[in-house]
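Hi X.,

You mentioned you wanted examples for the new student's onboarding notes, showing what a folding record looks like when two proteins sit in one file. Here is a clean example. The first protein comes first, with its sequence line followed by its structure tokens.
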Amino acid sequence: MKKFKIIALIAAVVVGIGLYYFLSFLSNSENEVQRTAVIVAAVNIPENTTIEASMLTTKEIPTEAVLSNAVKNMDEAVGMLVNSGVLAGEQLVFDRLVKVGEQEATDSLAYLVKPGMRAMTISVEQTTGIAGMIKPGNSIDLIYRYTREADSAGEEAEEKEEGEETIPVSKILLQNVYVLAVDKNMSKASTPQSQESYKTITLQVSPEDAVVLNFAVNSGIVSAVLRSPIDTDSIQVPEITSKEIDNY
């Protein structure tokens, strides 16, 4: 009986030593796991929210679990907009970050429009659309040609033909208008040759200018005039009638 007790005791000691080394091995293995610090959401971040520093935190996770496009620097995320909701504890990835107003940062027109501005699409042809040479990112002026009633008591009466009640007028309607898209193309990298058949251009305008432009395209002819990218000045040009053209 005593012999069995001794054997049991020895077995218990062996098992205890084995368990100790096994647990030590697991502990050392955990300590040897490589970890990487990433940026995660500290709170739920709803879609189309501008990120603030208080919404984020840094967390170390196993390197093998880090997403390929994970954000690792908080400064790269603060001030950006999330284009889809992010749950608390979820890794923040660059695919969900948008900088509003940057042409190459998104494929959504809504995120290209600067705050306070509006996107408006107008139809163009070869002559009104600068022969298919407009590209996203260009700036243009818009010329408005229309007819108006002649003032029979003024000089305009001399300009109209006999029996006519209106005279043609041409004027610069809007200046330095930013082109957001050509047809559905929003990329600056496109070439004029790949867009030569476009039929519409989408412009960034103020709400007030949108109302004016809407009226103009439905009451006359609106033509685009391409500007130099380094020319941002507005100029004063008087409206032109046939009389001014004759004396030009």
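Then the second protein repeats the pattern, sequence line and then tokens:
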Amino acid sequence: MNEELVSIIIPFFNRIKQLELTLESVLNQTYKNIEIILINDGSTESITRIKKIHESHENIYLIHNKENLGVSYSRNIGIDFANGKYISLQDADDEWLKNKIEIQIAFMKKMNIKFLYTAYLRRNLLTKKTVKINVPKTYKLPYIAFKCKIATPTVIFDKEICKDIKFKTNIKYGEDIIFWSEISKTTNLKGLNIPTAIVNVSEGSTSQIIQNQREGYKNLNNSLFDQNSLISILHYLYFNFKLFIKSLVEFINV
């Protein structure tokens, strides 16, 4: 069977040891027609070991940003550079199950899908506890902006659907959901409840998590609903109520 080329985009900033594990999981894929586009986003750690991996694989490209420009800027570079029919996004600190690409590409071809996300395994790096996160069968606006379970390392999409869509480089939180949302205006986003990735998380402070979520919600509101005041108001009320409850729970547990 002919295998279409899949371009895998991995921006990274330091955390080289974890990146090696990530790369190993990508190189061990059962689907072999891949190219790996590494974007070094101004790392200050030595990347000698990554260079050695790059030099020993003809299908690995290594691009260097002159300074730390952010994950969105780096992903845009990767998408522009990609030669594949399909784009697969991977975070530098997560891992893939070995048949991830094979499962997704086969399903996409069979069902004529242009954008597919999947369930994933969420692993706490401190407790080592792993939980499967299931996903809805589809996402559409405006629902995706209220509650989105799409994990970036599970996404594969046909490159042609994002030729006029870029990740927003001027925001830090919520940029991925905004990108999915823009694509959803012209393309169906489909989900598959088979885990294909391990998403590693570490426990941050609850207050910092809430602050990051608040900024993310504001970015979604400003980017997606500036022309629809009713949905903008509903979205604003929703995320403020949600974050109020989280803050209240934190206060009670202190």
